[in-house]
User: Fold these one by one.
Assistant:
Number 1:
Amino acid sequence: MLNTGHDLVATLSSDVSTEAEIEESDRWYQRFVGGAMMTNVWEAVVLLLLPFLAPNAEGTQYSPPGKPALTRCRSPEKETFTCWWEPGSDGGLSTTYALYYRKENSETVYECPDYHTAGENSCFFNKNDTSIWVNYNITVVATNALGSSFSDPVDIDVVYIVKPNPPEELNVTIMEDKGWPYLRVSWKPPQKADTRSGWITLIYELRVKLEGEDDWEMHLAGQQKMFNIFSLRSGGSYHVQVRCKPDHGFWSEWSSADYIKVPDYFHREKSMWILITVFSTFIFLIFMCFLHMNSNRSLKYYILPPIPGPKIKGFDKQLLKNGKSDEIFCALVVPDFPPTTSSKCENLMVEYLEVYVSEEQELILEESKELHNSLKCEGSTSDNDSGRGSCDSHTLLMDKCGEAKGDERQTDGEGHPMEMEAQMHQRDWKEGTLSSAYQDIVSPDMSSGRVKTWPSVFSPLHQCGSTSLNQMNSLAMAKQHCLSDNLSPPGSASSFLPQSGRSTTETHRPNYCEFYSSDKQLSSPKPQAQTHRKLQAHSDINISHKQAGLQSPALRPTEYVEVQRVNKEDMVLLQPVESGCVCGDGCPQVCQDYSKVKGLNSDNMLLLHRDVMEGEEVRSHCEKQETNGCITSHITPATQKPTDCIPTVTPIVQKEMGLAVSGYVDTAAMLTLPTH
Amino acid sequence: MMTAVKQSGVWAVLLWPYLLAVSIPLDCRDEQGNMSRCPFISQEKLLDRIIQHAELISRISEESCSLFEELFVPFPLRLQRNTVGYACITKALPIPSSKSEIQQISDKWLLQSVLMLVQSWIEPLVYLQTTLDRYDNAPDVLLNKTKWVSEKLVSLEQGVVVLIRKMLDEGTLTTTYNEQDLLQYDVLPDMLESVMRDYTLLSCFKKDAHKMEIFLKLLKCRQTDKFNCA
């Protein structure tokens, strides 16, 4: 029977061809000897059924089972382990599987003690069957009616296949550290793992993520069973998981997640951010300020820009601050002018003229004796606020401010010389132009032409002046204000009234002499009532007087300006007189060129007559037309800003002034007064 | 794991003089018989330090084996981290190999097993040093590790000896060297064979180092809590 069975097995397993396989099958067959009875019965059954099975299987081929494969073996605690296998094809017949193992250094083959504890297709080795640090050689055999197949053997050592269970009792709580919360995570090792005795040493790892996000944050905890997580997002909800691994082995599965919600601590952060934002904005603004300031001017300029002050020459600004209008307007009138103490103003009728003399225009004025010089010449230079830039280079400047010799002049009714004192700035004169000259023009009929250079100012001034003038026989004082920064002390006999109001100006300021002419009509037709016409010539400081041959003004207290000619445009060209050039001193030319203005006729014509200069009597006349275009143009713009008016002095020369002889005054070219 | 190893390493390095000092009493008492000169260490502390030594040795041996495997062993021949291909030299030693067996043996036997293991590996590691030096491109890392391990093993032996003396009151130093001439000192003609032999050596040592560590830890557990330990 045995032989029959053996032969049957041999014939049935048609694929058993090799010797080894036959031996193997023999071996397995030997095992079956133990159950020989059953085997015989089984064989009989197979034999009986085979004829029935074979014809019934139409097209289905029964075959021995496919080759199984051991997939993995794992030990949870290094005391037991389990192996799983993957079955191959069963060949259409019911197949049984068996696991056999061998320990190292031993040839004894054992079969799996437990096929059920660990589930299907598994083999469980309990404590008694598990040896550590020992190699196991394991094989799985699949057997069906037609044959059996063997898997590849696998060698394992239990020590190296340990995969523990996940840690247990995961607990997450919120703790606080100085107001900042953090998570405290704690857990217990898996129950089966004997870490207490040191049989297994586990290291742990946990991961954290915010609810709703995908990225986990991993933390390695080592052998400790507690871990702190900082840097939490306020109000966030966190998931925490933990796993473990023995020193030689595999990582366990992640434990079940524990959820925790962090309370809000946002407000504390927010206040800090607000503070930071404010501070940084402040710093930014300061930085921008500095940048802007450094690019242009100084800080002082931005914070306290210079306030343009009143540019009234000879005007005390303090009066403006006091705020009394009467005082202000009265102050515009030079206190000494009209001179109340003397009668110098009596016969004076002064017109305030403003003259702008261009560079190429030179006025030659004949000084008239009648000029009453109660002019005050203040030498001052306008500051940069005067706005006289355009006039600068073309204006004549008479910047001599000396003492008013009004007394002398005013009292001299006739032929009161009028001097024009110009003091040229030593370093500022560029061109040889005449400084402004002024002359008093005696004309009883001044009222028709009222020169208003300072319209708003002059009218009250006028009134003031009228009051004083009334006192002084309603004589308008002609003032000449020549502003320069260097005022020479009045030395010469000039009719300049001392006038305060010298402004300290810087260099390169245009000097100008303001001629104030009031149209206050002096009733007195007497020569005393002379109208002072003052030419206000603005000239830039930069007007040099080299060409003119003028001496440095510092040396000479007074300078004369002579009217060279009058151009076709009815302008009086003034030429500064050489210093020291007094008639008779050797400047016969000059002397000859001087003309004297005799007077002003009703037609506003300047009456000149040739005269021989005599010393101090040489005067230059600054004539200013009452109603010349410049003046009007003066009036319209700001009072302190003479526009580019070129010398608008229209000389008024009478025909009978045969001054053309000297080339001094060209009668032909003169004089038509532009009527207004 | 690495931080634990580093900590252990630091501990071991720092405590190494102490361990040496501990082992000095052997000579102190013998030569001069003056116990006052020798530093005293408690049994618990000694056991702790021995365990730290063993842990560090196990860690470094595992790293050395992995490094060697990467560098010299062809991929098909690599062990699947599960077994040791060749028989280890210490297979003949009567060492318990399961937890149940370990639970049944006494402390004395536990210590004796450890001592046997340690002593049986001292010479092979020295041999391994010499063979690794013969390799053409063995990196210094590997050489340093194996050198360090062999040195530490010697100190571990000394510690265990002292511990045995303290715990078991056995005066004599049980030097049961493994007389088996398992190592063939002649150079094998085949390079691959030589590599595989060295590989086996390292793997076996890795396993035995782990054994030592476990035994010592179990011993410690028994010292503190006898009833709940393995």
Number 2:
Amino acid sequence: MTQSVVVQVGQCGNQVGCRFWDLALREHAAVNKKGIYDEALSSFFRNVDTRSGDNGRDIYKGKICSLKARALLIDMEEGVVNEILQGPLRDVFDSKQLITDVSGSGNNWAVGHKIYGCQYRENIVEKLRKTAEHCDCLQCFFIIHSMGGGTGSGLGTFVLNLLEEEFPEVYRFVTSVYPSGEDDVITSPYNSVLAMKELNEHADCVLPIENESLFEIVNKIHQMINSGKLGATVKQNSLVTSSAGSAKALQEKPFDAMNNIVANLLLNLTSSARFEGSLNMDLNEISMNLVPFPRLHYLVSSLTPLYTLADVNVPSRRLDQMFSDAFSRDHQLIQADPKHSLYLACALLVRGNVQVSDLRRNIERLKPSLHFVSWNQEGWKTGLCSVPPVGHSHSLLALANNTCVKPTFIELKDRFMKLYKKKAHLHHYLQIDGMEQSCFLEAISSLSDLIEEYNELDATRGGPRIDPSRLKIAV
Amino acid sequence: MSIVTVQLGQCGNQIGQEVFSALCSDIRGTHGLCSEKENESYQDSCKERFFCDEESAVPVARAVLVDMEPKVISQTLSVAARSGHWKYSSHSHFCQKQGSGNNWANGYSVHGPRHKEAIMNLVQKEAEKCDRLGGFFTIMSMAGGTGSGLGAFVTQCLRDAFPTSFILNHVVWPYGTGEVIVQNYNSVLTLSHLYHSSDALLVHENDVIHKICAQLMNIKQISFRDVNQVIAHQLGSVFQPTHTAGGGSGYSRNPLGELMESLVPHPEFRMLGLRNIPQMPESSLPYSTFSWPGLIKHLRQMLIANAQMEEGIDWQVRPPHPSSIPSTNKPLHFNTSIANLVILRGKDVHSVDLGSFQDPSLYTSWLNPQDAFNAWKTPRAFNKYEKSAALVSNSQFLLKPLDSIVGKAWNMFASKAYLHQYAKFGIQEEDFLDCFTTLEQVISSYTNL
């Protein structure tokens, strides 16, 4: 069994990360009734003997003493991290896992990447090494951050670079929250495009998230609960947006509901690596199957179900509905239209009491309405994990490598160009040591190349299918 | 003689456990329908072949379990132990912490060499426990990373370490519509490598077994466990003890050797398909009666029409007329055989007329029909079926599926998709091309039968 380390950077990263740890504890508590520290738990948590104070040794087997998250919390302001340390999760984190400063990055990627990056490099490397040392077999780093600000975007991508240098064999999965069009941070296009270049070059997989989608999901759930349709009662802890049953239940804050969705995404992504099933899907398999070309590693995710009704019996029809929902836009975590674009690859990670025949039936059913690239007509990767998430009898996470991310990137590029043409706010960046015009040019060029790669694939769509001729053997 | 089973990867281990479970439950069953003496002889032979009598209350499977991550092996060991009737040795497994990531190159080029010594030590130990080693039976899928890549490497190691032993690879072919996106690459790499080190490949296709579960076994929500149990039943029907023709009294002592001798006359032709009838839900068994002529007739037609199960057989397909020009005039859907082996188990087995399988028009002209066809029999019924017949065939059974896999892999290869993932671990485009060439040769050979 392998371990993963979460690196949460910036305000967004830490708020989402906080929700992740909370829900992870809730999930393991539901599965692990005997309080024994098992391999599943060890993938994200250390078991520390805290009787002798904070420097306790790790306990590898036996009863759970004190669980510590395998995480690094980085923020250049203290507010968010301090709140975490004073909240119900304070015991899950070690003071040695924090890197904070006071003044923040001013929504400036260059401040985050160049100034703080430089300043905190040694510190970050040391703490990463420490965390890695506690791992028997470290498989993956999960970075959580936003793209539009300064710390998450700038320092977050600096850390991404560092991870590649210091731990080249460990996978880097990045969960990035992309800014929306009406983002109130004016320089978010600059920050995002500068960060994109780093993601293009150093990440193994990126899961882009858009607040708009999260917001719509939250609204949909509110409506569902408040409509009181047919007197249906919803199981509270089954809501993809809820923290019910976890440590934090009583203190929900505005972004908590949205952040819980992202936390659930990460839990479902790693479920087959942590728990048993009839067809396991490990993290390295996700990267292997979903990334046909090195830079095309942006995956559209969708989660179902969003809630469970309180009645227990779920007939098979509901199961099929779950599959259909995964391919509907209101379950996606970004605003995109995969059905009308080209699939390069698609992964379905099912949890709970679902068997291979259910999976096959639904793939056959949905296939005709989806367009797959000509060289990957049957490009499905599937996983069956026996353990369902809290509050559900089964769930599905769909990850698609689809050209529908192209419009998102094109929009980002347009917003960037609007500002850049007028050189608006540019001086804030260029005055930073190490930042030059060329940084901007390289970044926009990297993004353009990426868009072009997607264009080339889109161009293959719809044309006559000519299979390449096979090797001929002399008889 | 004893057979050492090597279970590789998730699929290999899951199936292996079902196989030993089926073998064990068969010998413990009271449905032998034969004399006590016969039954005892059968049990002893099976035990010698597959189990070891170490100081243990229950028989210990002669198996080595290999996987690159721990979850499946630990599950396999515990399920076996929980049965209370057999178990695996506690020292016969090897696992690591991180899987192969569905990457054949990772399994073959990284995990293989790294863990060769440890794995071969376990195999050596198991081999030494056998009074007489009859050969190796490896179980793997070709779609993933460990079973396929590490499996191909281990097979090579087995060949190097035991040059005179028989090696039979049981390979599971994945569903056509994806379990793993790079499954066709992994399959091409696996099959071409196995062709060079193995004696024969015995193939099961998930699609076919799935249909059997759906249409014959009437299972509504088919799970991998159901699929694996059907596979285990079919394997058991081949490898449980039998009397071979002319072997005198007593059960055959060299099943793998005899299998190879009967079915693999030429090294270019190593792909064996397996059919087994009848197949039905256990609850229907008491209400069904079978006749040998009926079973033989169906099995023969399944052979020549390339039917995957006993429902939906195309009875229009006939062997070509003996006076017609060979090769070019064969009816399109006719499945030409190189060699066939029929295994019969149950009541009145000695009275069965197998003349229809010796019809020369079923075969290529290289072997005498007497040599192209062999039969193994035992009056001892298998797994509650009063009469059952299995067919292991070296014929064009697998030609179409193989061609399909190679076609899809080639299509993907032409676009260069995913190649960087293999290059990372040392498998380059040239290596792929070599594998494609090997398999195109195999396809061409089987096509021109």
